[in-house]
Specification:
mainly alpha, 6 helices, about 75% helix
Length: about 190
């Protein structure tokens, strides 16, 4: 692996895993605000892409190595974000027992798991499901997991984009810092 990325970028990838876990626990489990998860994905990619090269102490060398370091760390971070998202969705999908607030009409009568998730979506938007051609639990389950897989791929993509941007930012600032050192001459 060290042949393709610097050891510091590998350490940064582990930091990205930890960062993804904190974001997932914070915004999917503790305070379930999925839009915050989406907002933090590209920002975490940007941060980890920059950090990968800073951790690798990449002051010189080819741009391609700078980009690969940042994109590698962002890929690991994005995959972790996507896996955690799918894991939390699977947990709630399997454990849904139809409970609803009494002000919403009380609990749904359904079979725990996919049946209750389908009943919940059906109670919320029956015409939307009908327009999509979804008329039973099996069709709904296939549709639901297709949407979740698409979401996970998009999440990895936006994190990778952020990582690419972070690597570019690092490369641009490293060049600026080096040119300033060269202009000022040797230290006295």
């Amino acid at each position: 692996m060290k042949r393709f990325v610097d050891p510091g970028a590998i350490v940064a990838a582990y930091v990205g895993i930890g960062m993804a876990m904190v974001i997932a626990v914070s915004f999917l489990l503790v305070i379930p605000i999925e839009p915050a998860y989406w907002l933090l994905a590209p920002l975490s990619g940007l941060l980890i892409g920059y950090y990968a090269d800073a951790r690798a102490d990449r002051r010189s060398g080819p741009w391609s190595r700078v980009i690969v370091n940042g994109v590698f760390a962002a890929l690991v971070t994005g995959l972790t974000l996507a896996i955690l998202l799918l894991g939390v969705k699977a947990l709630f999908f399997a454990a849904d027992n139809g409970f609803r607030d009494p002000s919403l009409g009380g609990s749904l009568t359904c079979q725990t798991g996919a049946g209750c998730v389908y009943a919940r979506y059906l109670a919320q938007d029956p015409t939307g499901l009908a327009k999509a051609g979804i008329g039973d639990v099996g069709a709904f389950t296939a549709f639901y997991w297709g949407q979740q897989a698409s979401t996970a791929v998009t999440l990895v993509g936006v994190t990778l984009g952020g990582g690419f941007g972070g690597a570019l930012a690092f490369g641009a600032t490293r060049m600026t810092a080096r040119s300033r050192r060269e202009e000022s001459g040797p230290a006295s």
